[in-house]
Amino acid sequence: MERRCPYAPPAEYDELRAENPVTKVELPTGRQAWALTRHEDVRAMLADPRFSSDRMSPQFPTLVDNTQLRSTFRPSLISMDPPEHGPARRAVVGEFTVRRMEALRPRIQEIVDQAIDDLLAAGEPADLVTHVSLPVPSLVICEQLGVPYADHDFFQQHSSKLLNRETAQEDRRDAVDQLTSYLGKLITEKEAAPTDDLLGRQIVKQREEGKVDHEALVSLAFLLLVAGHETTANMISLGTVALLEHPDQLALLLNDPGVTLNAVEELLRYFTIAELATTRVATEDVEIGGVLIRAGEGVLGLSNAANHDPAAYDRPDELDIARGARNHVAFGFGAHQCLGQNLARMELQIVFDTLFRRVPGLRIEKPIDELDYKRNSTVYGLHSLPVAWS
Amino acid sequence: MKIATDVDRCVGAGQCVLAEPAVFDQDESDGTVVLLTDSVDGETAERVREATHICPAQALSILD
Ligand code: SF4
Predict the structure, then answer these.
(1) Of A164, A128, A89, nearest to A334 (Cα)?
(2) How far apart are CA A258 and CA B38, in angstroms?
(3) Chain A partners within 8 Å of B13 (Cβ)
(4) Strand partners, B2
């Protein structure tokens, strides 16, 4: 299903939600799965431990064929179920608390200011994706993890290959291998001499517990690096377009920096860029929205549909930065809710607060329906965003 | 209004801290919820209700 216009969820969602909120759909792989479109049902499913996140399970309703990856790929947090998931998540979630993210604020502000300097220095027209959207989250996650930013071209390339649904299986395999061996080497170095960063601290923590789990660290680093790159970058680009296209909303934001918090939640809801992160497979028979889902059946919790459910939001297809959309499921819900959500929030707040103040004449150099959208990616977004300002 | 937390369920998302930092905090090491007070009223109670609703792990409950 395609997004109706670059900004609205596919029209089919509204129909499904109204007529068939829990319905069988056919996936590109030819398999069948249930699609959930109501906010309430998606939340209930995600909070229910009878749905598994094990992406390597042959029953998991993947959109692309991943049989080649299945044999060797070590599951990371997103793919774990209890009882492994809880302790593994707890081992890192302390790195992403609200308080810790708040402590990063000055450094993130510096990074954002530097990125905007670079944008302005590049001269008009410049690509916002190259100068701001990608480097900000990329630098932040590299510093957090302790991965050399100098290598960012390498992992950006491979991570976008992985997220592109059209990438051939061999190329996907190759991207995974390259990233895994790169991170494997990096972690081996850190094991020899732990550095004071997330990966180094995890090594020390594991030792204190009498563990050495090199592979688990590689898969954690992999997940955080890939997730930390693309998602926030796309939200920066799309959010910028949406705010420039809604001058009344932008004016609200500029008049009162206090609304940025809510604005970020609303932009997250409005776009819901990682809509299929909320896919699961039932491990038992479970009733959702009055329909019996049998053990072994796949379920797509369509979070973009859920986030545009009129039962949860008035005028859901309108951007309303004042609405206070905190209960959105753009970060998922339940035990797997995005680990990096508070980091993402902080980055987005700082970018939107800084960008429009420092570059008041900012405008997009192309009609918005001609922009280069990522229509075939697991994470929705923009490949480039040409802007000018004078 | 009294609040209770179920630390075993908590997944450290920090949604509660964002909703009401005067009532909720997170443990430094494992990110799990820490209650700064277990009894609230007025507007704070409203925000605690919201926190209970948005907590992804359903780890917060209101006792009365
Ligand atoms: S919102 Fe829920 S899961 Fe997140 S820290 Fe608070 S109690 Fe824990």
Answers:
(1) A89
(2) 28
(3) 93, 331, 337-338, 341
(4) B39
Q: Confirm if A80 and A53 have CB atoms less than 8 A apart.
A: yes
Per residue in A18-52, pLDDT tens? 999 999 998 888 889 999 999 999 999 999 999 99
Query: What's the one-letter identity of residue A204?
Result: V
Tell me how far apart the alpha carbons of residues A123 and A143 are, in angstroms, rounded to a whole number: 28
- Please give the distance, rounded to the nearest whole angstrom, from the Cα atom of residue B24 to the centre of ligand 1: 9
Looking at the 3D structure of chain B, how many domains does it have?
Answer: 1
Q: Give the residue among A320, A386, A373 at the shortest CA–CA distance from A3.
A: A373
Residue A6 clears pLDDT 70, i.e. is over it: no
**A230 — pLDDT class (breaks 50, 70, 90):** confident
**Average pLDDT for residues A252-273, to the nearest whole number?**
95
Give the C-alpha separation, A137 to A143, whole Å: 10
- Report the C-alpha gap between A140 and B26 in whole angstroms: 22
Task: Return the residue whose CA atom lies nearest to atom 8 of ligand 1.
Answer: B10
The packing angle between helices A169-192 and A152-163, to 10°, is 140
Which CATH number characterizes residue B27's domain? 3.30.70.20
Q: How far is the alpha carbon of B24 from chain A, nearest alpha carbon, in Å?
A: 11
Q: Would you say residue A72 has pLDDT above 60?
A: no
Helix axes A85-93, A198-208, angle to 10 degrees: 120
Return the percentage of chain A with pLDDT > 90, whole number. Answer: 73
Distance (Å) from the alpha carbon of A203 to chain B's nearest alpha carbon: 14
What is the atom index within ligand 1 of the atom nearest the CA of B17? 6
Element (H, E) at B45: helix B42-54
Asked whether the predicted pLDDT for residue A369 surpasses 60, the reply is: yes
Determine the Cα–Cα distance for residues A343 and A188; give it in Å rounded to an integer.
26
Q: Where residue A2 falls among pLDDT bands split at 50, 70, 90?
A: low
- Nearest ligand 1 atom to the CA of B31 is 5
pLDDT for res A10: 83
Q: Do A97 and B13 touch (CB under 8 A)?
A: no
What is the C-alpha separation between A256 and B36, in angstroms, rounded?
A: 29
CB proximity B46 to A under 8 Å: no
Please give the residue range of the domain that contains residue B28.
2-63
pTM of full prediction above 0.80: yes
